User: Fold this.
Amino acid sequence: MSEKIEFKFKSPNDSPGYLLGQITMLWQRKQKKALDPLDLTHTQFVLLAALAWLSKENDNVTQIDIANQSNADRMMVSKVLRTLEQKKFITRHEHQTDTRAKTIRLTLIGEKVLQKALTEVENTDAAFFSILGENLALFNSEMVKLIDDNKSE
Assistant:
């Protein structure tokens, strides 16, 4: 028999990492169910939403901009954007000033799919987090602190 394994926490429910993992898996399952009919993965949705958000203020959104906005790996973003381009949800054009970069834009089809997805995701979020009631704003602000504190790693 192996040596006794020692845990810092008395119970899994005392571990914030364990709880975050559990919440994330449950939440992602609900999001997948909402996005499947639209032929979108959650990652594809996040990148489309990041592109749309950034496009509100900038006509020259690049892959790096999208990666930074979504806190995603640049190589993964590149692969997912290729898939979104194949689905005709986005287009890539030569950047006006940076010859190494491409400008990413939503197509009309992409805009329509994203709008439907936003409605589905926001409704799913509202239902999932409804149990928090008036504590939702505090929960969100605490998550923002965690994101800001760990973003550079």
Remarks:
- Residues 108-129 form the longest helix (22 residues).
- DSSP finds six helices and two strands in the chain.
